[in-house]
Structures are given as structure tokens and as C-alpha cells.
Amino acid sequence: MDKDIKNPKITVLMPAYNTEKYIADSIDSILSQTFEDFELLIINDGSTDKSENIILSFNDPRIRYIKNEQNMGLTKVRNLGLELVRGEYIAMLDSDDIAHSTRLAKQVNFLDKNQTYGIIGTWVRLIDVNSRSTDVKWKNNLLPEEIPPTMLLHNCLSQSSVMLRASAIRDEKYREGYAPAEDYDLWVRIAKKWKIAILSEVLVDYRTNPNGQSKTKKEEQSRAVAKIVTTQLGSLGIGPTNNELSIHLANDMAKDYGILLFLEKREAWLNRLILANHSKKSYNEITFNSAMGKAWLKNCYANSSKGYLVWKKFWKSNLSNNTRLRDWKDILKFFIKCLARGNKI
After folding, report:
1. pLDDT (tens digit, 9 = 90+) per residue, 101-124?
2. CB 16 within 8 A of CB 65
3. Alpha carbon separation from 160 to 202, 311, 325, 331 (Å, rounded)
4. Do residues 102 and 81 lie in contact, with contact meaning Cβ atoms separated by under 8 Å?
5. Quick one: 185 and 243 in the same domain?
6. Are residues 252 and 326 in the same domain?
7. Distances in Å between the alpha carbon of 183 and those of 123, 243, 338?
8. 51 touches 23 (CB < 8 A)
């Protein structure tokens, strides 16, 4: 299985832990790529199911197999993988997700042609436990220059869609203290040194967990994201209060507030970010304002159940002036949705 392929163009890094039901499909999706100059580095992190037997059933010289006798945890496994990769580029794929056949080819083509880019992601389709489409797609329609300021608000890259330039992470790694949002933390740090882009095409199927995250996992995720965001806000000279951080992290939905009150608070917060960036010049001002305008559009669209009242609030805000001509389709869909809802109190 482990033939000596010392200089592959790509290393596909696949951590694996107890995914016997899905790992064969994940491996097949890589071995079936139209781009063939790769190694598939699979690290079995102490699985107790039949994952190892399934991995060993594949007879392809491009597979490198590493077995941990004890479970190390995902962050340590990913860092081990980064130490072992031999490719110029590193493609991430979790062992229950699926890469579309042209994924590697299209990402390699982009990185070969754009030497200043350290990461290229893709759009993602969500699938269920039976590999059926959920009709949900993650489409981050962002210009490359809008990605760093958008990262201030939320993670806009799906781990299994990412291809990295190996030289971009030579001095970087996943940090334990940021799990389970360690990927978000890594992308933010890379974005300070390299450009990032997202291909406007679904090239990965991401498998959803029908039971969702455990309460403990959700709490860990929230704490990690809050830490990542607070650090970024610090670069703008903002030390958020707990209430401000809540408004910042709420992103699209009202959560603990009524819709109109939430939008009022969210509008004020986004404007404060714009003023802080104007003072600190942490991000390009035009693209930062554009990212905040796009966030405002998403906030209003997600809370359009109030119909015309939300549409009116959207247009009265100076933030709407920062939306772009290329957002017109989203604005039109937002208007139609508000129109259908009428004027609800």
C-alpha cells in the first residue's frame, strides 16, 4: 500500500476516528479524482471500530497509512499530519466527507496561477447520514479581499473544502487552546500573511450529524470562537463587554432579542466596527465597509419575518450603502421575502 511516492503535488490529509460507515466513500472520492498526482495520508487515531480493516482493504500506492495506538484527539492528529505531509499543497478532507471528482484539479489550478494565495476553499453541500443531499449549501460569495474582515464576524471556510499552500503553514499549526474551532483560528492567522479565496462551486459534500453537537461540545465551541473573535476585535482597539460580544456573535438571528431590537443593536455594532477600523486602519476601508454591508444584508434577510418593517430598516441604515452591485440578487430575494410577509408587528 505504502509505495515510495516522495514528491507528490498534493498531500490529502485525512484524520480518521471510528468512521467505519463512511470512510470507504471518503477514500474512494479521493482515489477517483481527475487530478492524480497526490498522496492520501490517512491517520487512524486509535479507532476501535472496523475503520482500520476498511483502510487496509484499499490497494493503491498513493495511500500512506499511519496508526495511533491511542486516541490523541483531532488537533494533535492534524498537527502530526502537517509534520508528515510531502506535497506542495495540502488538501483537507475529514473521513466522513466526500470530495467531488474535480475538486483537487480545480484547486491546484487556482494555486498554481495565484502565487500570493495561501488558501483556496470551495462551496459545500450538506448531506445526511445516508449520503443524501439536504438541499442546504454553504455558499460564501465573497471577494478575496472581503474574507479577512468577514473572518472578524465568523468562520467562512469549511475545513474539508480547504487546500493550503504548504509554505503558508511552515511556521503555523493548529492550537490546542482553540479546539474545537482550531481551524478558524488557523485561517485567521494565515489571512494576516496570505490571500484567501473561495471557489464559487460546490466541490465537497459535508456530512451533518443528526444529533448535533453535545452540550459540552457546543460550550467549548462557543468559548473558542469568542476567544478568536475577541483577539481580532483587539486589533481594532475594541475590548467587548459580554453583551457586545453576544451581539457580535449572534450574526444572523435575533436569539435573545426581539427581531427589531436585535437589528437596532446589530446595526449600531457594525457601525462601531466601521468607525474603529477607520481609526485603526487594520483592514482596507472599502472592503471592510463592504463586508459589514453584506453582513447587514444577511442579518436583515435572516430576520425578514417582520416583512416591510425589516425592509424599511435595512434601507434606512447607512450600512445598506455599502452593499455591492453584485449583491443585487440577494437584495431582490430579500425584498420578495419581505413582500410576502407583509407588514407584521
Report:
1. 999 999 999 999 999 999 999 999
2. no
3. 12, 36, 31, 30
4. no
5. no
6. yes
7. 17, 26, 36
8. yes
